[in-house]
């Protein structure tokens, strides 16, 4: 499936209570504390549940998950 | 006594419900001396509270002195005079006519404190969302590295601290709500979220209840002072203005599974106050729990 930006924004806002008004595609989320470990677990669990198989531990990196842009790029590259 | 100005005000709230904020706001008013926690009423309540024996007899100071011919009214009255005299003297030293007593755990002694103070004081009660209280209690206990004695029973009965905090909140909050409903002329009930969202109108109503003029200007200076007398909440001093940043913090601090577990404990009381009941995530099977743990481990490597 094609994971959409709106899906991600909706989850950040609705499930994780993130104020997305100031969040751009390149805003760093985890490394700057916008979301914490608990929320990151929720986010990755959500991505796995909506896009397919488990994400390998080696892929759980800041390069793949620290911003909306990076997450979308990683998730959609997996699906390709 | 209701048509007279009463010298004292007692604040009741579950610990971590905004009682320190409220105390500091009252202390900024020219009529009220509201220092840090004195434990005066807490200790007086502990003094009065006996243990119920199997035959129903309360073993404690009231009945103990009763056998010597001192009536319970006399014991309570003498203790009241002692406690009030300290607070009266301190208020006078501050040049203020009235005093405010707030100690975090007083809500767990509400009935005894009411017996002690009766209608000689006014009562200000504050309630806050249970899961925000639970999160704040976790921070408080972590910082203190100890549980106050009023929480020992909950910790003994609940091996998971968050469950213990939630049950303590339920008991304290229902006691406060029962009290406020039963004593509408003596007690004013505030909700923390309303207070921080609209301090001016909430404080205006509070000061009207207390029979004092609301000095709006005091709001701007109430939290700028670093009143160091007495025990107090370290977090309160980190703020110089009223803010609502901690409202709904539980949504980002507690996992969905934890919220689901706590919902069974807190929802009836949340509904009673008028909050929306909380809904957590669905039940996870063992594979899902393992997967979440694996993700958590992977995330630790990012730090």
UniProtKB/TrEMBL annotation, chain A:
Pfam families registered for this protein in UniProt: PP-binding
Domain Carrier: 1-79
SUPFAM superfamilies tied to this protein: ACP-like
Domain of life: Bacteria
Residues that span the membrane, as ranges: none
Name this protein carries in UniProt: Acyl carrier protein
Automatic annotation (TrEMBL), chain B:
Classification via SUPFAM superfamilies: P-loop containing nucleoside triphosphate hydrolases (SSF52540)
Coiled coil region boundaries: none
Source taxon at top rank: Bacteria
Keywords in alphabetical order: Transferase
Cross-referenced Pfam families: Sulfotransfer_3
Identification of the protein by name: Sulfotransferase
Organism: Albidovulum litorale
Organism lineage: Bacteria, Pseudomonadati, Pseudomonadota, Alphaproteobacteria, Rhodobacterales
């Amino acid at each position: 499936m094609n994971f959409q930006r709106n899906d991600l924004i909706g989850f950040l806002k609705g499930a994780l209570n993130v104020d997305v008004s100031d969040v751009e595609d390149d805003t760093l989320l985890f490394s700057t504390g916008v979301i914490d470990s608990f929320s990151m677990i929720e986010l990755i669990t959500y991505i796995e549940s909506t896009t397919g198989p488990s994400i390998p531990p080696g892929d759980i990196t800041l390069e793949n998950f620290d911003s909306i842009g990076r997450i979308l790029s990683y998730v959609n590259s997996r699906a390709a | 006594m209701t048509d007279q100005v009463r010298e004292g005000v007692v604040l009741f709230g579950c610990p971590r419900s905004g009682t320190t904020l409220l105390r500091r706001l009252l202390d900024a008013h020219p009529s009220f001396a509201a220092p840090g926690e004195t434990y005066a009423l807490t200790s007086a309540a502990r003094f009065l509270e006996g243990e119920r024996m199997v035959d129903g007899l309360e073993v404690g100071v009231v009945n103990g002195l009763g056998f010597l011919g001192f009536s319970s009214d006399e014991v309570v009255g003498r203790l009241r005079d002692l406690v009030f005299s300290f607070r009266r003297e301190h208020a006078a030293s501050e040049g203020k006519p009235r005093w405010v007593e707030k100690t975090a755990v007083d809500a767990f002694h509400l009935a005894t404190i009411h017996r002690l103070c009766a209608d000689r004081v006014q009562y200000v009660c504050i309630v806050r969302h249970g899961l925000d209280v639970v999160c704040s209690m976790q921070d408080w206990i972590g910082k203190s590295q100890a549980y106050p004695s009023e929480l020992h029973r909950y910790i003994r009965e609940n091996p998971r601290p968050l469950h213990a905090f939630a049950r303590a909140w339920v008991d304290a909050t229902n006691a406060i709500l029962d009290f406020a409903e039963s004593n509408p002329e003596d007690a004013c009930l505030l909700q923390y979220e309303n207070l921080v969202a609209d301090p001016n109108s909430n404080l205006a109503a509070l000061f009207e209840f207390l029979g004092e003029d609301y000095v709006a200007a005091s709001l701007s200076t109430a939290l700028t002072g670093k009143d160091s007398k007495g025990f107090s909440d370290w977090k309160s001093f980190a703020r110089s203005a009223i803010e609502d940043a901690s409202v709904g913090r539980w949504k980002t601090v507690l996992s969905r599974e934890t919220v689901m577990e706590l919902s069974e404990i807190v929802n009836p009381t949340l509904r009673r106050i008028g909050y929306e009941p909380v809904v957590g995530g669905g039940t996870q099977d063992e594979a899902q729990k393992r997967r979440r743990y694996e993700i958590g481990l992977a995330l630790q490597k990012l730090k």
